[in-house]
């Protein structure tokens, strides 16, 4: 097997010159910049709602101190209508600000999801060979989904509650500054407690998201079609269930810890804030007892009303601070993916080839995976004229597949260069390279969609007639036409409703639709039985006609007619020539042919399932 660069993916190093949290906050703020106009409108609505809401206690004071004692019915009615109007206006402003802020928050989440997905689409094959699929899915779904409440409501909540607190404190000062001082004595202690709770929840949230990612990876791997097949045939269903139960149990513990972190301390804040009216009444009564300045009943009731109004936004501000601390852990995981270094990039001024002949050259090519001392390929010099075929053979681990991956730039050479029509493939734009090179590998991937949709993935605008023509060339049309739903038949997860040979022929039909001038066949028939291989080989012969073909061969019977054959040994070219000339040398190639010709007992191939009958559901 081909060695991999690293067993697991690790996050990129952080910038040690800058504190992490302030830098992270600035990045989060930048996410909202495209929507600053809407956010400004939200700010105006919030400010208006806060100002309107604080007028109610003053209206109440006038009712209690003036309208009722003086029996002024007209003034009483006017003040009562004012209180109702304030409530209506506050509600209308609240609905509008919720609509706008939620829309902005969802757009920010959309931007994040799209940015992460686009970043991952730009990563090289090496990243995905060392990263679990479930981990990637968890970052996009769980981490970004976990930020939803924070992103959609935090900005509005901060502005709304902060404005309310400021407006309320100003109003309280206008009513009585002494009572205001009493009300705010414990506020610094509350802020300190909430910051400690926030840091604790952030740490737990990081562990929780990691555990959710691990559990998602387990689900993705074990509940796929291949995972179910492996688990059933190995009798490991109970073991997999036990592993999942253990991971789920760890997640339960983290969820409980996350919910309870600082709960008692925040409860103390709630109790103290709820008890503040009693303290206010006590302070007012004490002031009267020591013959201090008189506080009217209306002023006292209005002040307590304001103080109770201060309770909700203050607690909400403290809670929002805790939520922000928790969300920073999620943002950090998302930013790790956005900060991934893209090692295969398009040049600033890419070359676009209008007409591609298909001439391939490997010039002094060297390649090695990161972290490995010995290169996988060394000193590779090959010339493949347009329209000719090159077969690459060798023992497992000799570098055959790696060589084929250099042509479509799944990896980049670490030395030398690979050229297409005289242009280094690293200088070509991605669209030209994708149009020029078609790949058919041993591991065929089909989407859980219809046959037609899978074929049109190569050419979205393809007509039905083109689909049929490509399928005929790939020796698969008759089988598709015999199915109850024909080309509308859903292939199933990873194409498991079709046999290995049928999937290969569908992949070949898909490549025929693209009509690439260069074709890379990476052991496309090695997992098939002899009968199926013959049918697939006929499809490959039709596909390879008049194209430059690079074939990575396991079964040497499929490459005898190649224009040139190269034998790789430990990443170097050991022999080259035609089938006949290599046999005459009686070297490595001859040994491989003898080994390949050795009779072996027929064994079933896991990917080669029975043909899908016309009665299949």
TrEMBL record:
Protein location: Cell inner membrane
TM region(s), chain numbering: 39-60, 75-100, 149-171, 177-194, 266-284
Recorded topology in the membrane: Multi-pass membrane protein
Main location: membrane
A GO term from the CC aspect: plasma membrane
Bias kind Pro residues: ranges: 1-14
Keywords: ATP-binding, Cell inner membrane, Cell membrane, Membrane, Nucleotide-binding, Transmembrane, Transmembrane helix, Transport
Biological-process GO terms, alphabetical: oligopeptide export from mitochondrion
ABC transporter domain span: 360-595
Disordered: annotated span: 1-22
Coiled coil: none
The protein's name in its UniProt record: ABC transporter ATP-binding protein
Entry similarity comment: Belongs to the ABC transporter superfamily. Siderophore-Fe(3+) uptake transporter (SIUT) (TC 3.A.1.21) family.
Entry's Gene Ontology molecular function annotations: ABC-type oligopeptide transporter activity; ATP binding; ATP hydrolysis activity
């Amino acid at each position: 097997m081909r060695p991999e660069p690293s067993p697991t993916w690790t996050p990129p190093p952080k910038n040690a010159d800058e504190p992490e949290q302030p830098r992270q906050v600035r990045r989060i703020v930048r996410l909202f910049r495209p929507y600053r106009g809407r956010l400004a409108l939200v700010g105006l609505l919030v400010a208006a709602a806060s100002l309107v809401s604080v007028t109610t206690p003053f209206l109440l004071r006038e009712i209690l101190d003036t309208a009722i004692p003086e029996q002024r019915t007209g003034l009483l009615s006017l003040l009562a209508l004012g209180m109702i109007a304030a409530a209506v206006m506050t509600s209308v402003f609240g609905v509008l600000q919720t609509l706008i802020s939620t829309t902005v928050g969802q757009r920010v989440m959309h931007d994040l999801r799209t940015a992460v997905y686009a970043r991952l689409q730009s990563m090289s094959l090496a990243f995905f060979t060392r990263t679990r699929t479930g981990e990637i899915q968890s970052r996009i779904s769980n981490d970004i989904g976990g930020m939803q409440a924070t992103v959609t409501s935090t900005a509005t909540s901060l502005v709304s509650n902060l404005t309310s607190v400021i407006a309320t404190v100003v109003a309280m000062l206008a009513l009585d500054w002494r009572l205001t001082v009493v009300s705010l004595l414990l506020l610094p202690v509350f802020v300190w407690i909430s910051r400690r709770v926030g840091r604790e929840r952030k740490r737990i949230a990081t562990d929780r998201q990691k555990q959710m990612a691990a559990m998602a990876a387990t689900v993705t791997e074990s509940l796929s079609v291949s995972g179910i097949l492996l688990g059933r045939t190995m009798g490991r269903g109970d073991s997999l269930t036990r592993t999942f139960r253990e991971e789920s149990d760890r997640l339960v513990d983290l969820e409980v810890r996350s919910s309870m972190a600082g709960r008692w301390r925040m409860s103390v804040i709630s109790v103290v804030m709820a008890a503040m009216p009693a303290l206010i009444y006590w302070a007012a009564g004490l002031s009267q007892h020591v013959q201090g300045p008189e506080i009217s009943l209306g002023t006292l009731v209005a002040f307590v009303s304001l103080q109770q109004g201060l309770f909700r936004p203050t607690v909400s501000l403290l809670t929002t601070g805790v939520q922000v601390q928790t969300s920073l852990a999620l943002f950090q995981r998302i930013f790790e993916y956005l900060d991934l270094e893209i090692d295969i990039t398009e040049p600033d001024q890419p070359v676009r080839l209008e007409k591609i002949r298909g001439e391939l050259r490997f010039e002094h090519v060297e390649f090695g995976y990161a972290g490995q001392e010995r290169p996988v390929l060394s000193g590779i010099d090959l010339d493949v004229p347009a329209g000719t075929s090159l077969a690459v053979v060798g023992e497992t681990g000799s570098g055959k597949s790696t060589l084929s991956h250099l042509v479509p730039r799944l990896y980049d050479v670490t030395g030398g260069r690979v050229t297409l029509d005289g242009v280094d493939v690293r200088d070509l734009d991605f669209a030209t390279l994708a149009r020029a090179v078609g790949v058919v590998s041993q591991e065929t991937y089909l989407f859980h969609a219809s046959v037609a949709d899978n074929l049109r993935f190569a050419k979205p605008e393809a007509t039905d007639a083109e689909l049929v023509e490509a399928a005929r060339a790939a020796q698969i049309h008759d089988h598709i036409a015999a199915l109850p739903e024909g080309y509308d038949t859903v292939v199933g997860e990873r194409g498991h409703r079709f046999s290995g040979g049928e999937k290969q022929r569908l992949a070949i039909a898909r490549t025929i639709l693209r009509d690439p001038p260069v074709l890379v066949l990476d052991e496309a028939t090695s997992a098939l039985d002899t009968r199926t291989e013959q049918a697939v080989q006929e499809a490959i012969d039709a596909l390879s006609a008049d194209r430059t073909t690079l074939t990575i061969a396991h079964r040497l019977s499929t490459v005898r007619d190649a224009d040139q054959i190269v034998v790789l040994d430990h990443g170097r070219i050991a022999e080259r020539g035609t089938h006949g000339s290599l046999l005459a040398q009686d070297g490595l190639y001859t040994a491989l042919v003898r080994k390949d010709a050795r009779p072996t007992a027929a064994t079933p191939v896991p990917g080669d399932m029975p043909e899908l009958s016309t009665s299949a559901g």
